[in-house]
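Forwarding these from the shared drive since the link keeps breaking.
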Amino acid sequence: MKKFNSYRQTKVNWGKSQANICKLLGRFNITDTRFTFLQSQNKLICEFNYPTEIKEKPVNIGIRIIIPVPESKDTEQAKNQIHRALYYYLKSKFEALEFNLVEFTQEFMPHIVLFDKKGVSRTAYELFEPQYKKNLLTGNQSEIKLIGDGK
């Protein structure tokens, strides 16, 4: 796995970064947030529900951000690093929203959680990426299906 240099020397504890993330999300009325650190898979997962309205109907848009954890002999420092990177990643996304550069679904599209008919959830990117790469390799730009028939 690639080594990440950004925030490698951060002194900010990952717990403080999580608190900063929750505070940032709270500014946008996001109260349901979950962090999962999968040490065996070298991943940090941040999930939250974004409350909004679509055609005057209240809805929650589920978001799942999956971040690779940098290689490190010091697990705590790697957690500090990746949480800090996540904080600034989210901060930049929400700043784009505040400036009306994009709308929420446009900015978070790869991270939106979709469910198939069996109730299995994956992000839009996890569904889109293999089909897109296959189309690029074959030169055949066929239809990309984000949600199959669930079979």
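-- next protein --
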Amino acid sequence: MPSPLTVLNAISNILAQLIDQRKNTVPSIDDIVLEDFPVPNTNYRQSFLGDNKQLSTHPLPQSLLISYDLEDRHSIAEFDYTFEKPARLIGLTKAVLYMSCEDRDDFIAFVIQASIKR
């Protein structure tokens, strides 16, 4: 029977091969070669919901009340962020959203990230 360390090494090798295969099979938009994932020189940034429908790099000093019409499927709470210089978003997006609702105990929130071409 193989030792637990041997089994873990085998699993690690299989996962590494799967990740390499995934990197090779996903069609690229731009011809950029990434030697590793996650990209080693990634610049992770935090954003905060701000006033005037903008994302901010700094948290607001007080809470912010945002509302929209639940009955209207086109009504959304929308926030924009404009990069100061051209940027490339690579990898998985992670959103952590802290929110509360005085009228309900439980609800579902959807977060959509989209590029707006101007």
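The longest strand covers residues 48-49. Helices lie at 4-25.

- D.
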